[in-house]
Design brief:
CATH superfamily of the largest domain: Vaccinia Virus protein VP39
Shape: globular
Biased composition (Polar residues): 14-29
InterPro entries: COMT-like, COMT_C, SAM-dependent_MTases_sf, WH-like_DNA-bd_sf, WH_DNA-bd_sf
Order of helices and strands: HHHHEHHEEHHHHHHHEHEHEEHEEHEHEE
Keywords: Methyltransferase, S-adenosyl-L-methionine, Transferase
Pfam family, one: Methyltransf_2
Bound molecules: S-adenosylmethionine
Largest sheet: 7 strands, mixed
Helix content: 40-55%
Number of helices: 18
Strand order of the largest sheet: 6-5-4-7-8-12-11
Distance between the termini: 41 Å
Number of domains: 4
Strand content: 5-15%
CATH architecture of the largest domain: 3-Layer(aba) Sandwich
Domain O-methyltransferase C-terminal: 280-425
Length: 460
């Protein structure tokens, strides 16, 4: 049976076999260090093996069936976690993965993965690769050996290696820039979380100007000011935004948010008083325009204008192709705009915020929403918030890690549906019309309108 969207990111933890083969928790003795060499949850292994065996390779196309692939992956991860001993988990975390991260960045910056991908990824010796990238051959051999042990490249013979799909992907800017962005911007913040929390008696950060990011970077600048301050940071951050969005179901497709029904139908094409075309969609903080491009590819003959807004440093680096004519003869309009200031586009069909609210503490979110609310046409304009909607149980790691990074970088957070409703309805006087999405806490679209006062009529 196909897994439900809520189930794909998590195996059936609650129904796991009792931990019969492991040491019982009642006899746990913290002084007995032999626990470190026993598998973490052996009782779950038979059930997980049965679950995994029930996937039918012949009937399922794992390259296109995303739900089946993610569900199988989540069971495979659980199997590894159950089989590993605490010692093995420890060494993987603190040694194998930390060194892995840094050698990948070195590989990116020395063009190692480009060299490996040459000649259709044919196997190459460490000596040949070292010569091509001007590297000490013995050192490179040690690096390649670890990358192979972590399954990032394939060892095809003694001293011979070829890339797999992952290491080939490291030659693309979204992946390469993401590693550099995390090394330069995110890890100095996360690696200082413990110190920052200790000085604050273990209270959550709640401001963008005093949090582990500002502490770790020893700066009074906010994250976005640091990003805007160098071309390299801007480029790597934008790369990461593109990488993050890849592979998700299109935000405005039938399976996520049915934009054809919810936005295009009911769009008012009446020209504005100055004769211009009315606006369909304003992507606020839209970065380099990837979500508007998704909208165009899903709805090529959409009516109305599309507007991309972001800070000047980002608008300046949007690719020229973004403003080329669309299939319907129009083009995306670029607009420098700070979303804490008055919104210049009045009465659009929709204002879209993707990964904006999670960057800002509660009070700042209120200020952004206030500016949008002022220009929304009651009963017509929609506010679309594309964010994690963390389920009360079984949240996916994609949502939980992001929540922690939002705390560290911005003093902000990801939210559950209850927390969203509290902010939008109780805090801002908006009405939530629906929460759409693939489920599992991996992004959903919260659709809102301005709550009508009693006696006010709807326009459609
Ligand atoms: C986390 S990114 C999200 C980008 C894009 N919406 C996406 O989901 O891929 C946040 C975006 O907000 C923009 N931003 C930050 N502060 C802003 C402000 N005050 N006004 C407008 N945009 C801002 C950043 O430049 C960045 O592009």
């Amino acid at each position: 049976m196909a897994p439900s969207s809520q189930e794909i990111y998590h195996d059936t933890v609650d129904n796991a076999t009792p931990n019969v083969n492991s040491r019982s928790s009642s006899s746990f003795d913290p002084n007995d260090i032999s626990i470190n060499a026993h598998p973490c949850d052996l009782g779950r292994v038979p059930g997980l093996i049965d679950d995994i065996a029930s996937y039918n390779w012949g009937d399922t196309d794992f390259s296109t069936d995303r739900n089946a692939r993610i569900s199988l992956l989540s069971k495979a991860r659980s199997l590894i976690a159950a089989l590993e001993t605490p010692r093995e988990t420890l060494l993987r975390h603190i040694g194998a993965e930390t060194s892995n991260f840094y050698i990948i960045v070195i590989g990116i910056e020395t063009n190692l993965f480009h060299e490996m991908a040459k000649n259709n990824g044919s196997p190459k010796t460490a000596t040949r690769l070292a010569e091509a990238i001007s590297f000490d051959p013995d050192l490179l051999r040690r690096i390649l050996r670890h990358l192979a042990s972590m399954n990032h490249i394939i060892q095809t013979g003694e001293d011979k290696y070829r890339p797999n799909n992952f290491s080939k992907a490291l030659t693309t800017s979204p992946l390469a820039g993401s590693y550099q962005f995390y090394r330069d911007v995110c890890l100095p913040a996360m690696s200082n979380l413990h110190k920052w929390l200790k000085t604050k008696s273990y209270r959550s950060p709640t401001t963008i100007i005093d949090n582990p990011f500002t502490f770790g970077h020893q700066t009074s600048q906010t994250f976005f000011e640091v990003i805007a301050s160098t071309a390299k940071n801007t480029e790597h951050f934008n790369d990461h935004m593109v990488a993050y969005c890849q592979g998700h179901p299109a935000w405005c497709s039938e399976s996520v948010y049915p934009a054809a029904d919810r936005l295009i139908s009911g769009f008012d094409p009446t020209p504005l008083p100055d004769g211009s075309d009315p606006v369909m969609l304003v992507d606020m903080g839209g970065n380099v325009g990837h979500d508007l491009q998704t909208f165009i590819s899903q709805h090529p003959s959409h009516p109305g204008r599309l507007v991309l807004q972001d800070l000047p440093s980002v608008i300046a680096v949007t690719p020229p192709s973004l403003t080329s004519p669309l299939p319907n003869g129009k083009h995306i309009q670029l607009q420098e705009h700070d979303f804490f200031n008055s919104q210049p586009v009045v009465g659009a069909r929709a204002y879209y915020l993707h990964h904006i609210m999670h960057d800002w503490p509660y009070a700042k979110c209120g200020l952004i929403l206030e500016q949008i609310k002022k220009v929304m046409k009651p009963g017509y304009s929609r506010l679309l918030i594309n964010e994690q909607v963390i389920p009360e149980r079984r949240a996916s790691w994609e949502a939980t890690y992001l929540d922690l990074y939002m705390m560290v970088m911005f003093g902000a957070r990801e939210r559950t549906e209850k927390e969203w409703r509290r902010m939008l309805e109780d805090g801002c006087g908006l009405k939530v019309l629906g929460v759409y999405g693939p489920g599992g806490g991996v992004e959903g679209i919260i659709e809102c309108e301005v709550a009508l006062e009693e006696g006010e009529g709807r326009e459609e």
